[in-house]
């Protein structure tokens, strides 16, 4: 019991360390901007007063970290200690208060912008995941049950094609077929309930291919287990054997992949949202953030997406351990 | 080798040949626009048709292969090399070095969804081919490092390693001559899948406007230019041909990687 508690504490401590590093890296990203971020945002024609005002407003006039090596009058790099009056410390104290800074362009709090867009992205990711699961489980079971036959081979090839077709190819093709040619669905936006169909399918396509392969190998592995023979010997129908017994055990590894893939979906949503003008975090990141050089918005979005990813991964890990007691011991 | 990996190999060889001989294969000058020849469908003079500014799509797809392969090869080579060095250090020395590298550094990199980190880096560094390659290496090396670490952990316990040590071989010699050659096999699978991933990521970032800047014929850029509604309506082939090029290339590398994996891991082999 004591050992178990120690293990849990260690994991939590570790998680805190990773999150701390990730946030630190994101806050320091702006140092990568070549030249002066203020000029990059306001443009070359901005007056020195405008630039100074902008820098003061967003803390860009202060040193980025606790210490640095600025060039002094003689042209030498000298070690300098800035104390607590630096952007890094500021960023942390604001984050802990739930403040992600203000947008460089719209002057609105970044936190507000993200909170506005977040639900749309989660809605898209979860719908995509549901679509993927609904496609993958039946196909994977069929492939696994008919292992080695032409059905299995055909499904494997289709799955590989699905993995290889990027969303930015599938998406515009779907727009061409369903919006331009057939006129059934809108090419972009988020107004009608049906507007989610094309983006969710685009985002979920690769995942459904990956899952199909996983379900297939899971089913094959489980079908070789003794309990399947027992179930068949009891006279259960093949349907019950596969869907009640095999699938139940076979889905455990699939759950892990689902959790880990949520992060991939969040990153993939950046592209899908751009294709379909879906107003989520990805569109905020690409159009408002990167497109308009609104660096504070970019930082906020990267932070929001990676934090969601870390949380999803941790929950997956916990769920996996709970589902399969064999893993808990090791 | 399975049938699919042979198909994959054939496609990859074809793409490489096309990329190498692009200047001779291309039927038109790659950047030449011609507004009187917009949106022409595939024909004898323009095999893949023309795009919204009258550029020949076939020539652009052919030159696009150069960009994709260049990015893929550099990214895979650099990340595999760097990952192998870090992974073998972690696996070979163990102890606090391993805990720091595999426990902390690897996990920090894995805490970002891969593409997001690349997008963030390029967003701040500015777009461009070299920066894109740099960003893809940053997200790519961890996969190789983890793989090699696990392999080295396994191989270093083998008898022949103990024997080499007993004969007085140094760390570097044991690692490079005895352990790595026996640990490197799965790296080939990872490298093949990594090529697929790098080609995809390059196209994705260029599609987002974060990769190779527009006039150059990156497949991702071509798709981005072809997807506005008026172009889609008038010239769907402007989307389809670069799309097929990306899908075929990625598919081919995935076929090879998959075939190699099944070959190396008989448990996964069919029948």
Major beta sheet of chain B, specifics? Answer: none
Beta-strand proportion of chain B: under 5%
Largest sheet composition of chain A: 2 strands, antiparallel
| Rg of chain A, alpha carbons | 25 Å
Gross morphology of chain A is: globular
- Determine the fraction of residues in helical runs of chain A and give it as a percent range: over 70%
Distance from N terminus to C terminus of chain B (CA atoms, Å) equals 14 Å
User: What's the end-to-end separation of chain A, in Å?
Assistant: 14 Å
Strand order of the largest sheet of chain A: 1-2
Q: What is the oligomer described by this structure?
A: heterodimer
Mean pLDDT of chain B: 86
Runs of chain A with pLDDT <50, length 5+? none
What is the average per-residue confidence, as pLDDT of chain A, rounded to a whole number? Answer: 83
Number of helices of chain A: 13
Poorly predicted runs of chain B = none
User: By helix and strand content of chain B, what is the structural category?
Assistant: mainly alpha
Individual helix count of chain B: 12
In total, the number of strands of chain A is 2
In which range does the helix fraction of chain B lie?
A: over 70%
